[in-house]
Design goal:
With about 140 residues, the protein is an alpha/beta fold. Helices cover about 30% and strands about 15% of the residues. The chain is elongated and about 115 Å long. The model has no long low-confidence stretch (mean pLDDT about 85).
């Protein structure tokens, strides 16, 4: 650090002027080191919610849900539990099972060569009648 006491050349001496400014570079370096140490030592804040989970075994479901299998073959024919049905029969059967207290699980298995329009029609019909437990199965045939 140096101090500037004024213009010494006006008195005629050959000595250079002294600087009165403080060198702030070491001060900034120390402050940055302290800031990094502060960031490292602050504990990580976890936003978690403590839940009281029930103890013991969960109750077993005595009634297994019924499973309805709807298949669509390569010729785009729809089968309900192995029996070929047309669009009207499919809608009637879906309405009948949607009225039950416990809806059965509906498994739709399309063939990879079936037309998508037929598959989309089956899904839209199931949504229209109010079926909620629908699964598309057989996806392993689409993996190359």
């Amino acid at each position: 650090m140096a101090i500037n006491l004024g213009n010494s050349n006006s008195s005629g001496s050959d000595e250079p002027e002294l600087m009165m400014d403080i060198n702030t570079t070491p001060l900034i370096d120390v402050m940055l080191v302290l800031l990094v140490m502060l960031i490292i030592t602050i504990p990580i804040q976890l936003h978690s919610v403590n839940l009281e989970m029930p103890v013991g075994a969960p109750p077993t479901n005595q009634v297994k849900p019924e499973k309805i299998l709807i298949e669509i073959d390569a010729a785009s024919v729809v089968y309900w539990q192995g029996v070929a049905v047309n669009a009207q029969e499919l809608d009637e059967k879906m309405k009948a099972i949607s009225q039950q207290n416990t809806q059965p699980e509906v498994h739709v298995r399309p063939d990879k060569d079936a037309r998508y329009a037929v598959f989309a029609n089956v899904l839209s019909s199931s949504k229209r009648v109010g079926l909620t437990k629908i699964a598309v199965i057989g996806a392993e045939q689409f993996v190359r």
